[in-house]
Design brief:
single chain, Rossmann fold, 6 helices, binds S-adenosyl-L-homocysteine
Length: 229
């Protein structure tokens, strides 16, 4: 099988590249794609750069050019749900775009005609994650992740996103990867470790915890590889 492992920032894929050690690098569309082997699987790794547009581009390329058959995303996020603390893992059951707004025409937030507000992640991959978390005694929350092209460092904004979308965490790529993978019929999985609480201190916390949280998320993703069939 060909499995795609994706992040948004260099720091998010660094632990993956370290784990695979040997890989081939392919330059394509202003980005780098790293091709590795793991047991019987081919692995394609890339970080997209931040935001929905770059994430959509990278997810599309992984699927259309590199022919990945499953897409797993690993990275960091801001917490909305008070159960989530820095370093904790959240797996998205569904994802939405909190900054998508044509409400002027009577549509709900996050919706455009012929689209959906929520895109559901692959249940089999989620189940694998839950089983591993149980086995290893790791705290793993299941919840809704809201995506938008904004770094949220504001309590009111975060509260608004919680209310409108019942979201548990927020970040800047997940939902766009979800739309691409859903449209191209590739099972996808989005995992995030909390780097900040999307509040006043978010910028400071993010810088301090990016590396350690990114590693938590990447290490968990690696532990899933043996179980993906
Ligand atoms: N410090 C970086 C910018 C980081 S943007 C720089 O200067 O280049 C935040 C990244 O982490 C995004 O990829 C996003 O998906 C995730 N993220 C973590 N906390 C977030 C928050 N509070 N709001 C939005 N995205 C967040």
């Amino acid at each position: 099988m060909i499995i795609g492992l994706m992040g948004a920032m260099q720091e998010e894929i660094e632990p993956l590249l370290k784990f695979f050690k040997e890989y081939e690098t392919v330059d394509y569309a202003d980005n780098k794609y790293y091709i590795a082997k793991y047991k019987d699987n081919d692995i394609v790794i890339a970080y997209s750069k931040i935001g929905k547009v770059y994430a959509s581009l990278t997810a599309t390329i992984m699927i259309e050019k590199f022919k990945i058959e499953k897409l797993l995303f690993s990275g960091v996020a801001g917490a909305i749900n008070n159960d989530l603390h820095i370093g904790d893992l959240i797996v998205a059951t569904a994802l939405c775009q909190h900054d998508l707004d044509i409400t002027a025409f009577g549509h709900p937030y996050g919706y455009v005609p012929e689209g959906k507000i929520y895109y559901k992640a692959d249940e089999t991959l989620i189940k694998i994650a839950i089983d591993i978390a149980k086995e290893k005694g790791i705290k793993l929350k299941e919840g809704i992740i809201a995506t938008g092209d904004q770094f949220v460092a504001n309590k009111e904004k975060k509260e608004w996103i919680r209310k409108k979308f019942k979201a548990d965490a927020l970040e800047m790529e997940g939902a766009s990867v979800a739309v691409v993978a859903y449209s191209l019929r590739v099972p996808f999985f989005i995992l995030r470790a909390i780097s900040d609480a999307a509040d006043m201190d978010a910028g400071f916390d993010f810088d301090e915890f990016l590396k350690s949280s990114a590693k938590n998320s990447a290490d968990f993703l690696i532990s899933m590889l043996d179980k993906i069939k």
